[in-house]
């Protein structure tokens, strides 16, 4: 598995997401239309570690702790797993209390990457990371869903104590490139921050599994965002993804992941099946040409579709 540098250590070029693990508010049933248990997911976890994919991303609000609890059940007692979770300002603090609850569910004594999940009151919450970083309970700090001004503010607050933001995690895909357009990715490159891209596959819409005749599950958040009309508009892009995939003996999903890696990001890929682990491992080995990257981006632009989550603020 290819590696990228996060401060002083190497991490996999792909992280694995657990948004769809567990049920409950904000969980896999409500967002993705599944009802996965720990028994269903254990083979996925084991397969990932065998493939060298050991960086797992979760959040307190994914199933309101359910995702963390399942991941913690698998990771407990292991020293070969990197854990990433998030504090959500909308749920209130103190940040240390939220972190301690997450650590308890995850069965860990420290967090490898701890994120502030949204930019609600950056000046209030960012300083609470400082004692957690100095004590070693948080190894690396990150911010998610922040615009460039908010990232710079968080960075300046930590810098006063000789600390820094190590990572930024924003929605980024062929259909949503606002972090690139706003200069966030350039800022990350200039300041030794790793940019983590989430929703690279747009919750399945860019996998070629769904189309206007076979839509995403109804009654779910992703089903509402990608209805039949939107999927019909994606057909031209999917065609280009298939053509490029054929050249690399790869699926459309693998092409979308390879594109995100080629753009200098660490994609976070949600996984619920062992086949998706194989997809991710294959994607990490694909090297797209400059022309292929151009063709993908041109086809994406031609769709006229820009997908922004209801929880996201505009980056521009």
UniProtKB/TrEMBL annotation:
Q: Which domain of life is it from?
A: Bacteria
User: What's the protein called, per UniProt?
Assistant: Aldo/keto reductase
What GO molecular functions are on record for this protein?
oxidoreductase activity
Give the species: Cohnella thailandensis
Entry keywords, A to Z: Oxidoreductase
Record-annotated NADP-dependent oxidoreductase domain positions: 14-299
Which GO CC terms are listed, alphabetically?
Answer: cytosol
């Amino acid at each position: 598995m290819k590696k990228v540098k996060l401060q002083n250590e190497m991490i996999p070029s792909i992280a694995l997401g657990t948004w769809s693990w567990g049920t409950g508010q904000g969980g896999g049933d409500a967002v993705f239309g599944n009802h996965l248990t720990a028994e269903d997911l254990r083979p996925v976890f084991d397969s990932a570690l065998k493939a060298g994919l050991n960086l797992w991303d979760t959040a307190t609000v994914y199933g309101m702790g359910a995702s963390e609890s399942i991941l913690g059940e698998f990771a407990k007692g292991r020293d070969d797993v990197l854990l990433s979770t998030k504090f959500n300002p909308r749920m209130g603090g103190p940040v240390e209390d939220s972190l301690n609850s997450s650590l308890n569910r995850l069965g860990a004594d420290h967090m490898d990457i701890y994120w502030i999940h949204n930019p609600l009151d950056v000046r209030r919450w960012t300083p609470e990371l400082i004692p957690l970083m100095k004590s070693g309970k948080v190894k690396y700090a990150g911010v998610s869903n922040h615009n460039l001004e908010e990232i710079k503010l968080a960075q300046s607050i930590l810098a006063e104590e000789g600390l820094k933001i190590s990572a930024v995690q924003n929605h980024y895909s062929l259909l949503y490139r606002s972090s690139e357009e706003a200069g966030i990715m350039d800022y990350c490159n200039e300041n030794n921050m790793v940019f983590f891209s989430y929703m690279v596959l747009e919750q399945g819409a860019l996998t070629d599994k769904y189309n206007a005749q076979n839509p995403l599950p109804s009654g779910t958040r992703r089903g509402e965002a990608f209805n039949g009309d939107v999927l019909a508009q994606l057909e031209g892009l999917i065609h280009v993804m298939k053509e490029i995939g054929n050249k690399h003996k790869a699926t459309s999903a693998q092409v979308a992941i390879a594109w995100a890696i080629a753009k200098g990001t660490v994609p976070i890929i949600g996984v619920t099946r062992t086949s998706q682990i194989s997809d991710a491992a294959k994607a990490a080995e694909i090297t797209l040409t400059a022309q292929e990257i151009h063709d993908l981006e041109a086809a994406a632009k031609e769709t006229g579709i820009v997908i922004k989550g209801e929880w996201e603020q505009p980056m521009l």
